[in-house]
Design brief:
Helices cover 26% and strands 32% of the residues. The chain is built from six helices and eight strands. The chain has an eight-stranded mixed beta sheet. The protein starts with a strand and ends in a 27-residue tail after the last helix.
Length: 200
């Protein structure tokens, strides 16, 4: 268990699979995921779960509120211990928990773990340019804009840009604006792809 201010991060369990399936088959959630929006079956999601158990370069956690409600997932992917870097992905699946600061606290909690426990130097992410709320959240957590992948993806009938963002360890540790109870409005719906939640 990794404690935050308003959330805690725990290991994902096999019993979470039906919840994952509900989220990734939700059209509103799919819009922000880095995968082709085909419906996924229980068997496909189960295979994704099994893959995560054996993937040493990916660590996905369930996001729970203080009351133990599972509201989403967050993870570090493409972890490179030699170069000290990883990419971050997050999904808030339960709609009623968006816009309440849970995503912001989850991101900060995972960054703290990545830098202080895993000794990583850099964490990066990608976000669709139309996901303005998520971009504001990442900026609030200390991520900086590093570039744009122009017309990288096809969503909503047109080509969409992806914003490339990153944060270094010293930038995160130098950020003193981390209040104990952050209730800023941050609707974190999509950062980087969640492995297995995209068209193979």
């Amino acid at each position: 268990m990794i404690p935050g201010n308003r959330v805690r991060l725990r290991a994902i369990e096999r019993g979470d699979i039906p919840t994952f399936l509900k989220w990734v088959n939700d059209p509103e959630v799919q819009r922000y995921l880095g995968r082709t929006p085909f419906p996924l079956s229980f068997a496909q999601e189960e295979r994704w779960f099994e893959k995560q158990l054996n993937d040493e370069r990916s660590r996905i956690f369930a996001i729970e509120t203080e009351k133990g409600v599972h509201i989403g997932n967050i993870g570090l992917h493409e972890i490179d211990y030699k170069d000290g870097k990883a990419t971050l992905g997050i999904m808030i699946g339960e709609k009623e928990y968006r816009d309440q600061g849970y995503g912001t606290d989850a991101v900060r909690t995972l960054l703290r773990f990545a830098f202080q426990e895993l000794n990583l130097h850099r964490v990066s992410l990608e976000v669709f340019d139309f996901n303005k709320r998520a971009i504001r959240c990442y900026e609030k957590c200390g991520f900086r804009h590093e570039g744009v992948a122009r017309e990288d993806s096809f969503r909503g009938g047109k080509r969409q840009d992806k914003i490339l963002m990153g944060i270094l360890r010293q930038e995160f540790e130098g950020d003193k604006d981390d209040p104990p109870d952050d209730r800023g409005r941050a609707d974190v719906r999509r950062v980087s792809h969640l492995p297995g939640h995209r068209q193979p």
